[in-house]
Structure formats: C-alpha cells, structure tokens
Write a structure and sequence with these properties.
The chain is of the alpha/beta class and 431 residues long. The protein has 14 helices and 14 strands. The protein has two domains: 143 residues, Aspartate Aminotransferase, domain 1, CATH 3.90.1150; 250 residues, Type I PLP-dependent aspartate aminotransferase-like (Major domain) (Aspartate Aminotransferase, domain 2, 3-Layer(aba) Sandwich), CATH 3.40.640. 38% of the residues lie in helices and 14% in strands. Bound molecules: pyridoxal-5'-phosphate.
C-alpha cells in the first residue's frame, strides 16, 4: 500500500483524484482493492464502508444484478452517440413518472454537468444572469456554483470562492444567502428580482452533514420565485432515489421548476439528469446548448434502469431510512451514557457525527464543529474497521447491505473510540 501511494504521489496530485479522497490518506494512505455490499477492502483489511463513494452506492457496492444488466448491455453497445436509443426513452419515461417536477429529461454524466445546464437553462429562460445560492450547499465544481460551500468563519456572508482560478467577473453573478432565512431571501428578491435568473439549493443540505429545511423557508422560496419569474432549482443529486424514489420535493411540499438528479440513480455507474418543466426544458437544442459525447451512454442507462427497478421492488429506501433512524437513536444513547458532548444529525439513510452542541439550522451552526477532534475520532474508528467520511463537515451513508449486525459493530466501535480518546477532550470549539 505504501508503495502504491508513493507511486501515486509521483503521478497524481496529492495522490488522489479529489480533495476529499486525499483527506482519506490520513492517518495513513488508503488503497482500496475491491468492494462488495457494505464492505470495502483496502490495505489488506476489511472495512465497513459508510462513505459509499459519497452517496451513489445505495444498493451496495458491486451489485450483482446491476452488474449483470450492464454486462448484457455491453453485448449490444456502450455508446451509440447518434439518434436516440429505446433505453434512453425508457429511463426518461421512468423519471417523468417518478419525479413530480419532471416533464422532460436530459441525461448527462455528473452532478456538476447537471447543475451547470440547469443554471444555463434558467438564464436563457429568464434573460437574467445572477443566481442565488445558499451557504453550505454544494452543487459541483463549475465556476458558477463553487462559492461558499465551506467558507471559514470570517468569510461567512461574503462571497467566498472555493477555488482559485474562478474569474472575478463571475463572483458578481452569485448572491450568497444563509439557508433557512426567509427574511434575507425576501429582502434580496424585493430589491434585485429583475436580475435573478435562478435560486439553487440542496433541499436538504447534506454537504454540511444535514440541515433540515424549515417548511416556511421552502414555501417562501417557491412563492417569491413564482412572483418574480425566477427559476427554482432543487439539486437532488444526493437526496433523489436515496431518500425517496420520487425525490424529496413532494414530501417537503414544494415542487421546483428544475431538478437535478444523479448519484443513487446509477448505484455507482456514472449517470445524472436534468429534469424539469416543459416550458423551460424545451429550450434545449432550441437556443440552449446541451451536449456531451458520453451523455446518454448505455452503461449508465442500463445501470439506472436496473437500480430503479430494485429500489422499488425491494423497498430499499424505506428500509435504509428506518435503519438510519436506528443508527441515530443508538449513537445518541451512547453519547448520553458516556456523557460526551456531540450531536448526531441526519435524515433517513444519511447521518453525521459532529463535535458541537447547538441545533443546526444553517451553515453558521455547522462551522463550529471541532474538526481536529473529529479527525482523531475517525482515525480511531478506522482502526476498528469502520470507514467514515474524513471531513468533519461531510456525512455518512447507509446502503441496502447494512443491517443490524453493522449497527451493533458501529455502536461498539463508537463507544470504544470515544473512551480511548478520553471523554474530556470532547468540548465543543465554541465553549
Ligand atoms: C448536492 C450535490 N450536487 C452536485 C454534486 C456534484 O456531483 P458530481 O460530483 O457528480 O459532479 C454533488 C456531489 O457531491 C452534490 O452532493
């Protein structure tokens, strides 16, 4: 493993394809070799995986039925790149049936591409240029959205690019607001509505663990965008199919104009989609450029068709949602028994352990987590065969292959890790 990592450092920046993956090389390099179900095998050891590639793996790694569907498709072709295939139509029809805001569908390969196209479409539709995004929400890495995902405390509320290299001119096109703040949003719309092309958000921001949206907040976004003619975009890249096969929009009581979906749609195979109202989506190829050599590739589509079938057939979403509640309850019990100050946040099959205490309503209540403590805790859990997200702001996931057995293993490791670190160290940064 050290050898692979040393070679990686020579040819791959920081020895990983993404910044988050490079964080996993702490406390030691992590070199995975194979993954099945909820287990990932790395460094000659077995780990129970709660990262699950940051969300796509909802049925379990390397799912035999999904793999078989992909293998069958490979016999017929993986990329036609001309016209339209029946498989494309079938999966698009399925999404139109499932997602309340979907009247038309465009397939792409990543969440970043999907949010890019959603924003371009909203600009074309409204003839306006600015976008509103919320602090703590992530919508991919492109220049229009890579702002204020995890700003340092002193940059909260100010425009904060998450990357160097984003042209200054683009900073002026993005307005940042706190999540769950109806008044701030209403004020901005009252003053600047004629500039705002779209409002984009994760309806349940999981890029900072979990923020539960206030009902009134989502209703305010819907009402104001309708009044002023801006496009409302729900980025359901994490939530759709994982939390609800129809996306969370219906259960949250607000239907957006455009929805972006991906991740759990393909159970690990690359596929994502922009879905939305006919009136906006009809601009595609009619003034609005949407393209991509690999868009609508048959590997992603075959995986998506089979994944949707299994999610529905096996009631996966309900089962992992209930298991998520059990995890949160059990972990809270351990904290209480040990008298440790930390909070367990989450929604359905997503959860996060945060070393801080007050309730989470927006990014400002997340930025206070004790990151150093979290990293030491994650290292202890890893020693015990449990793989957690390395970043204190991020989240853990469950899949259909996690069970009561893994829950029991987790609870033991959790208690042991906290004890071995010494309870008194878990004082939140703010106190
Ligand atoms: C809510 C959300 N939107 C968009 C993206 C970007 O997706 P991708 O990494 O597939 O480009 C992510 C990725 O984590 C995400 O969580």
């Amino acid at each position: 493993m050290d050898d692979v990592y040393a070679r990686a450092l020579r040819v791959i920046p920081k020895g990983a394809q993404t910044g988050l993956r490079s964080e996993i090389h702490f406390p030691e390099p992590f070199v995975p070799e194979k993954a099945f179900g909820c287990k990932i095998y790395a460094n000659g050891r077995e780990f129970t995986d709660y990262i699950l590639a940051f969300g796509p793996i909802v049925l379990g790694h390397n799912h035999p039925e999904v793999n078989e569907a992909v293998r069958e498709q490979m016999e017929w072709g993986v990329l036609f790149g001309v016209g339209v295939s029946e498989l494309e139509v079938e999966v698009a029809e399925r999404l139109v049936d499932l997602i309340p805001s979907a009247e038309k569908v465009v397939f792409v390969n990543s969440g970043t591409e999907a949010t890019f196209h959603a924003i371009r479409l909203s600009r074309a539709y409204t003839g306006r240029e600015k976008i509103v995004k919320f602090e703590g929400c992530y919508h991919g890495w492109h220049d229009y959205v890579a702002f204020n995902v995890h700003p340092p405390e002193n940059m909260m509320g100010k425009i904060y690019p998450q990357s160097e290299g984003i042209p200054r001119a683009i900073w002026d096109l993005v307005r940042i607001l706190p999540f769950n703040d109806c008044e701030a949003f209403k004020e901005l719309m009252a003053e600047h509505h004629d500039e705002i092309a779209c409002v984009i958000l994760e309806p349940i921001p999981h890029s900072v663990g979990t923020i539960i949206p206030k009902k009134r907040f989502l209703k305010t976004l819907r009402r104001e965008t309708k009044t002023y003619g801006s496009v409302l975009i729900f980025d359901e890249i994490v939530t759709a199919f994982r939390h609800n096969i129809r996306g969370v929009q219906e259960e949250l009581g607000v239907i957006p104009d455009i929805t972006t979906v991906g991740k759990a749609l393909g159970n690990g195979y690359p596929i994502s989609a922009v879905v939305g109202r006919e009136e906006i989506m009809s601009l595609v190829h009619d003034g609005v450029l949407v393209s991509g050599t690999y868009s609508g590739n048959l590997i992603g589509l075959a995986a998506a068709k089979k994944t949707l079938e299994i999610l529905e057939r096996d009631g996966v979403t309900d089962r992992i949602s209930k298991l998520g509640e059990e995890y949160r309850r059990a972990l809270k019990d351990v904290l209480e028994d040990l008298g440790v100050t930390a909070r367990i946040v989450g929604y359905k099959s997503v959860f996060a352990i945060q070393f801080a205490e007050e309730d989470v309503v927006d990014y400002s209540s997340v930025v206070n987590v004790n990151g150093e403590m979290y990293r030491r805790f994650v290292a202890e859990m890893r020693r015990r065969g449990i793989l957690l997200t390395p970043n204190p702001m991020k989240r853990c996931h469950l899949c259909a292959m996690h069970s009561e057995e893994e829950l029991e293993e987790f609870v033991h490791a959790f208690g042991d890790s906290l004890k071995s670190l010494g309870l008194d160290i878990f004082t939140p940064k703010t106190s």
